[in-house]
Amino acid sequence: MENIAFSALGGFIVLLAASFAVAGLLLAQRRVSLEFRKAHNDTIGVIYGTLHVTFGVIIGFTAFLVLSKYTTAQNTAASEAGDIVEVYRLAEAFPETQRDQIQQIAKSYAQEVVDEEWPMMRNGQSSARAEALVEELGRSLLQDIEPSTESEQGAYAQELNRVHDLTQDRDLRLLHLYTGLPPILWVVLGVLAIAIILFTYFLGMENAHLHRWAVGVLTVSIVFVIVTIVVLDHPFGAGFRVGPGAFERALNTMQGTGYEGIEAAG
Question: Is the dihedral of CA 172, 174, 177, 181 positive or negative?
Fold first, then answer.
């Protein structure tokens, strides 16, 4: 339902932009004669072509950046969920008291991320409790566990590495949450998009209806691409966002269900 609502909003924005663009064209056709526009077709065409190529290069580069960000966000979430599962699994090598403590923190962290933090990320926020649980996990390892056997020492070293990886993956996920494309890039895209549409007003086309359709289709295409970039630049925001599925599967694993499936998926 959320994706449908977001798609409807995106479609409304696209159609609204196209309506404004065609309305501007109608005004230009009334104020500027066809003969005047036809007389300057060559000059306008050169400038328009330059703007079009420049916009195409920048929009392509921007699309690459946000698609890479979205894919990295998916992989980071999956890696973080895998880290917490390994933290839980490696704790089996510790004495019962320390084992239960580590495993309980690991399950609490995954539950907190699914139930509280993921909904909060839609609004650009993170969970302070999830952060505190990660810190508690690190303190528990450093202060409460003293490996005595060789197997415990090996598991302890691996556990420390996994907690380190978990912290890094969490930091990277939150970095994708808090940061986006540089504002100057949005300004450049917006200015070039408007300039391209405005320059189409002054092209001299004999068929006025065809001219309006061309401007409308061009505007729809440009705005649709920009809306797609906005969505991909917010991988944990509203709409087509990265979901908490990896953490839900991690919870199932730690609760003793579906471990083989998780291993296969990883």
Answer: negative
